[in-house]
Design goal:
Length: 276
């Protein structure tokens, strides 16, 4: 599997501080959207990036290592900000390996998102931890109503706001021509899915696509900080599975991989990186 990537972030037109932070360095690509204002939200998101950056430069990582980053980030936020009301989302993808094959581990806490663009279709992989998402799940509101709902910024999970982080995980074998998008809600709050899909379809270079998405979101209003990471994947093939790891606060356990991979199509691939 070969990857290339690009990233962009902007304060937007309204906020005085950029509380988003991002990391784009194999094997991990993520966006963190801090909440709590200057010297709080920006610190929380930066601590997340610092912690996950310790995985950077390795050929692959593991679900246990990613989960450890969540735990340590939450600890550091609690320590550094001493009970101040703040926190951060973290959403992203990491290259992982099972029996010599490469997979994407998608992870999420909060309402930053991971999308996959493949075969001309944009699909949201992560599920928001938000009040509005719960209303959607219960069928109380429509997706259109969700976009403008007054409580759309209220999160049900974040790092720093609770005793133990509860990330969700999904495992995807990389498709032959996948493109992954990781973004903060400053992007999805401004741009409809079809606009995002069009940019991902038209701009072949990952950095160009990441930059263009941010520029369009700022032009559309820039009401929030906006961040994007675009990751391109090229492999020789593989099946598509969507599975959720246990949400246990402790380690994921030695049997977790085998459970997740039961019945999965396993692509044969090797991993290399290339700078944009
Ligand atoms: Mg935001």
């Amino acid at each position: 599997m070969r990857t290339s990537w690009g990233s962009a972030t902007d304060r937007g037109r309204v906020r005085s501080v950029n509380e988003d932070a991002l990391l784009a360095f194999p094997p991990v690509f993520l966006v963190a959207d801090g909440m709590g204002g200057h010297d709080a939200g920006d610190v929380a998101s930066r601590l997340a990036v610092e912690e996950f950056a310790q995985l950077a430069g390795r050929p692959t990582t593991s679900a246990d290592e990613v989960h450890g980053c969540f735990i340590r980030t939450a600890d550091r936020i609690r320590e550094a900000l001493d009970g101040r009301p703040c926190g951060t989302t973290v959403a992203g993808v990491a290259v992982t390996e099972h029996e010599g094959s490469a997979y994407w581990l998608v992870f999420n806490v909060g309402d930053s998102r991971v999308y996959r663009w493949a075969d001309g279709q944009l699909r949201q992989i992560s599920v928001d931890h938000s009040v509005v998402q719960e209303m959607l799940d219960r069928g109380e509101i429509t997706p259109d109503e969700a976009r403008n709902h007054p409580e759309r910024h209220v999160l049900t999970r974040a790092l720093g706001s609770g005793p133990l982080p509860e990330p969700d995980y999904w495992l995807l074998p990389a498709g032959p021509h996948d493109r992954l998008l990781v973004c903060s809600d400053g992007l999805t709050g401004e741009l409809e899915d079809d606009v995002i899909a069009q940019v991902l379809a038209e701009l072949a270079d990952a950095q160009d696509a990441a930059q263009q998405l941010v520029e369009l979101a700022v032009e559309a209003g820039g009401h929030d900080n906006v961040s994007t990471v675009v990751v391109d994947v090229a492999t020789s093939g593989g099946g598509d599975v969507h599975m959720t790891l246990p949400r246990a606060g402790a380690g994921l356990g030695a049997g977790a991989w085998d459970e997740m991979l039961d019945g999965a199509t396993v692509p044969r691939a090797t991993t290399t990186g290339s700078k944009p």
